[in-house]
Amino acid sequence: MKSQFLQSIAILAASLSFVIAAPTTYSTNVNATYDDLPNAAVTVPLNTYRGLLYGNWTYATVQAVQVGGVASASPFSRAVSNPLGTLTLVPQKPTWNALAPLDFFFGFAVRDAQAIATLAAPGTVTFTGFSAATGKQVASMSFDFKPPLSPVNPVPMKQASLPKEFNQPLGKIVVTQTNQLGTALLVDNLHYLLYSA
């Protein structure tokens, strides 16, 4: 009888530790516009923002979008991919221990000498989510960006909504891009949930 009681306590403790490690209800709903970041005429590293750690990301302030360029979803800044290394989004611990991305705006554009994206270009972005509880891959989705061949106006970013498989506590998002050499992935208005530790 005593051993059964101890076994029940151990199972309960394990269950509680799982809940603490990967909560099932979110704490806050975030729309990351990047517009409140310091003005940046050239791309600068984007390390942390609104509860997330950004691995190999930069950001830039949009001065004026030329004809054929990519217009941001929000007025000023947008995140820009770094061509070196894997792009990641990770919750900023110890305050947050999981995230769930919901939707975002994106585009691809040719980089100029200052690494500011200019002319729109085709490309594909893939979001891959890894469970906060197990570390295993649980979701993946790709989205294409296909600007017109000869645009006469700035090209709007495309909105991408992630499927329900992403709406769970995730410990990491890996963002990969398939695009032409010399082009950059642009992201704006990243909408996600954060789970408190």
Describe this structure as you would to a colleague.
This protein is mostly beta strands and 197 residues long. The chain contains 1 helix and 14 strands. It has one helix at 2-21, and strands at 28-32, 44-49, 52-61, 70-71, 77-81, 87-91, 96-111, 117-120, 123-131, 137-145, 155-156, 158-161, 170-179, 183-196. The longest helix has 20 residues, at 2-21. The chain is globular. Mean pLDDT is 85; it is low at 5-21.
Distance between the first and last residues' Cα = 36 Å
SS-based structural class? mainly beta
Poorly predicted regions: 5-21
Judging from the principal axes of the Cα atoms, what is the shape? Answer: globular
**Percentage beta strand:** over 45%
User: Averaged pLDDT, please?
Assistant: 85
Largest β-sheet summary: 12 strands, antiparallel
**Tally of strands:** 14
Could you give the order of the helices and strands? HEEEEEEEEEEEEEE
Note the total helix count.
1
Report the radius of gyration as a whole number of Å.
20 Å
Tell me the helix content: 10-25%
